[in-house]
Amino acid sequence: MVKKTMVLSTEWAQVEVVELTNDGNMWIPNLPITVITGVAATAGLVSLFKDMYGGPAYEKEASAEGKTIIITGANDGIGREATWEFAKRGAKVFMACRDMSRCEAARKEIVLETGNKYVYCRPCDLADTNSIRNFVERFKSEEPHVHVLINNAAVMEPPQGITKDGFETQLGVNHMGHFLLTHLLIDTLKESTPSRVITVTCSAYSRGDINKEDLNFSKNYDAHAAYNQSKLANVLFSRELGRRMLEADIAVLAVDPGLTDTDLTRNLAMSKSLTRFIIYPLFWPMMKKPRVGAQTILHAALEPKLQNCKGDYFVDMKPGKLTEKGEDYESAIWLWKVSEKWTKAYHHKALLQKAFAA
Questions:
Q1: Catalytically annotated residue among 118, 120, 205, 227
Q2: 118 is known as an active-site residue
Q3: Nearest to 85 by CA among 69, 102, 101
Q4: CA–CA dist 324, 311 (Å, integer)
Q5: How far, in Å, CA of 242 to CA of 274, rounded?
Q6: Local structure of residue 158 (DSSP, 8 states)
Q7: How far is CA 271 from CA 156, 263, 290, in A?
Q8: What is the pLDDT of residue 236?
Q9: 81: nearest Cα among 59, 118, 113, 126
Q10: CA angle 199, 167, 177 (to 5 degrees)
Q11: Model pTM greater than 0.90?
Q12: How far apart are CA 48 and CA 274, in angstroms?
């Protein structure tokens, strides 16, 4: 067997290939090249699979020109990407966020990239009912209409805690805050018809239960169960709101963007341990990019065919079938009444009316 060496030149590198010949008819590339080629091919296939798995973009030329849109949690992840998409299509967008520094940084980038200067940051802490009311008061003083309200912000399995109003954190931010925000804007939504209310949920709702005996999980806190409960609350809220809007030209939808690679999982134990470096790569090929996940929101907000939706559930821009829990009419009514009482919805509404009457 004879060993021969060749040097292959390209525009960017020189690669040495070791050629082994046996009677002049066999050659074997050296090990580093074989490994690099295999890794590159695998990475390409994984990236291709990831793009295909993420699903199509909402490519329809549905304009958002003339629409005023409010979106919570808009400074990062799916919320930021949805804001970018709406701004690109000509909407006036209000980013309702708790962290104003991050919101402003995101807003400046969006304005620069889309050329739409009608993108605004407004403080709105969903863990504080007074902050929600202040947001609505300022918004109504500035704008006569809101055509799309997107309840997007969420927290997932944080350390046990309560909001300023005493709600378990996930229940308070994911459900109660959005319930009050919608309640205080419903009159403006009615004056802006055709309009829409979109609430972002996820498949975790199907594993949730409304803990009627201890809605706050104050006795036996289970972060995972509390998160699932809050996502089920999103679905039940949409169902009941849709029923109440049957006579109004307000579309109501609950949407599931699917598994998306965002910062939502930052509080999970896995994200804080070395196991992240093992588990994350396994799930990465099946995780959508935030802009891909945002397409579900874009579709729900702009697709003309969806204006008659009244609490419908969509997954990846397709109608989804709710479980029995998601269709529980009695639980939806019970949760609505409790939410009205806990958030002091009518008290905040009266304060708003008083402020505008002055």
A1: 227
A2: no
A3: 69
A4: 15
A5: 44
A6: P
A7: 12, 10, 18
A8: 98
A9: 113
A10: 30
A11: no
A12: 27
